[in-house]
Write a structure and sequence with these properties.
By secondary structure, the protein is of the alpha/beta class. The chain has 2 domains: 172 residues, 3-Layer(aba) Sandwich (Rossmann fold), CATH 3.40.50.2000; 142 residues, Rossmann fold (3-Layer(aba) Sandwich). The protein is 41% helix and 15% strand. Strands 3-2-1-4-5-6-7 form a 7-stranded parallel β-sheet, with helices on both faces. A 6-stranded parallel β-sheet has the order 10-9-8-11-12-13, with helices on both faces. Strand 4, helix 4 and strand 5 form a beta-alpha-beta unit. It starts with a strand and ends in a 5-residue tail after the last helix. The model has no long low-confidence stretch (mean pLDDT 92).
């Protein structure tokens, strides 16, 4: 049996193409939702034509603040034990695999649960490294622990394979990230915006929004950019909460060049992204999407574990005003051709899962 253990919106977007490929082949899987995020999950499932989770480990409000994390982790530990109903369809011979994705707390929880059950663990989007434990934190630490726990590492490129060579695990080269499959489908299926006079800003990483000085710097930079370029500021729920608690929501809302938007459904966001002039983000998934679409992308981080677009359409801000200003002075130089290749990382992964069908 194949168990798919995920908990965040970003994970669902990247795992949806794998789930879709399994369903198209009539291969059963058990979808376990950790409960880390639930808002907009139903929209993503509907976009991809997928059924909801078979079970929820925690069914309640999204985990938006650090104070909620300890209780959530405790419940995850308690509700993924051998007696749990979440392991529907498990094989009596233990020929099961738990697929986890990326670098969130749900990744680590799922990997630990797999090992406790005696199942194999497959890590999707494995091998990515920033080589800085504290940037991003705790994501880099989660990656390192998951590399050790997982049995199969699904790596998107040669660099990620090199990063895990010393672990002695079975490594599968997926020739790209499953985000490629998701972006290709979303761009095809989404209704494109009839506007093209805007850029998009999407900031949500913990190391940015929970660092008051850095968060204020980013907001001020976005405001300065908006004096020359219209911006749709897409707010994840934790971002909106931090904007309001830091007194920054009103600053953004008062700017005529900024339009504040609640978080969009994935396909709706893809439609806006396909028509945008640029993207300001701190998200790795957004960086990948921009590289496939050839969209000029400014990443509000000091470093990134992803190589997609670097040296082409993607620029790291390093929280430098000079770099930000130079990016916008040369904006069109960073636009590159759309590159949605026909390679399917999701199909490569599904083919490799054959022993667990």
């Amino acid at each position: 049996m194949i168990h798919i253990f995920i908990g965040t919106k970003a994970q669902l977007i990247k795992m949806a193409p794998i789930m879709k490929a399994l369903r198209e082949r009539d291969i059963p899987y058990n979808f376990i939702h950790s409960g880390q995020h639930q808002e907009t999950m139903s929209d993503i499932l509907e976009d991809f034509g997928l059924p909801g989770p078979d079970s929820y480990i925690v069914d309640g409000p999204d985990i938006k603040v650090k104070a909620q994390v300890p209780k959530w982790i405790h419940l995850c530990e308690k509700r993924t034990r051998r007696s749990s109903d979440c392991w529907v369809g498990r094989s009596k011979r233990c020929s099961d695999i738990v697929l986890v994705h990326g670098d969130t707390l749900s990744t680590l929880v799922g990997a630990l649960a797999a090992k406790r059950m005696g199942f194999k663990c497959g890590h999707i989007e494995s091998g990515l490294r920033s080589f800085n434990i504290f940037h991003p934190f705790p994501e880099e630490l989660v990656r390192l622990m998951t590399f050790r726990l997982a049995d199969v590492l699904y790596c998107p490129d040669d660099a990620s394979i090199s990063n895990v060579a010393s672990y002695g695990k079975r490594v599968v080269h997926t020739h790209g990230n499953t985000m490629l499959d998701a972006t290709r489908l979303a761009v095809t299926m989404s209704r494109h915006s009839d506007r093209s006079d805007y850029g998009i800003a999407s900031i949500h990483r913990y190391e940015n929004i929970f660092h008051a000085e850095r968060f204020r710097w980013i907001v001020e930079a976005v405001i300065e950019i908006s004096r020359n370029h219209k911006i749709l500021f897409i707010m994840h729920p934790p971002t909106e909460q931090r904007l309001r608690s830091n007194g920054l929501y009103e600053r953004l809302d008062a700017e005529p060049g900024i339009e504040l938007r609640k978080r969009l459904s994935y396909f709706e966001f893809a439609g806006f992204l396909a028509q945008a002039k640029f993207l300001i983000t701190d998200g790795g998934s957004n960086q990948e999407e921009s590289s496939y679409l050839g969209l000029p992308c400014l990443v509000m981080r000091k470093g990134t574990e992803r190589r997609e677009g670097i040296g082409k359409n993607v620029v790291l801000s390093n929280y430098s005003k000079e770099i930000v200003r130079d990016f916008f002075a040369k904006l069109e130089n960073y636009r590159t051709p759309i590159s949605l290749s026909h390679t399917s990382p999701s199909e490569i992964i599904v083919n490799d899962l054959r022993p667990y069908y």
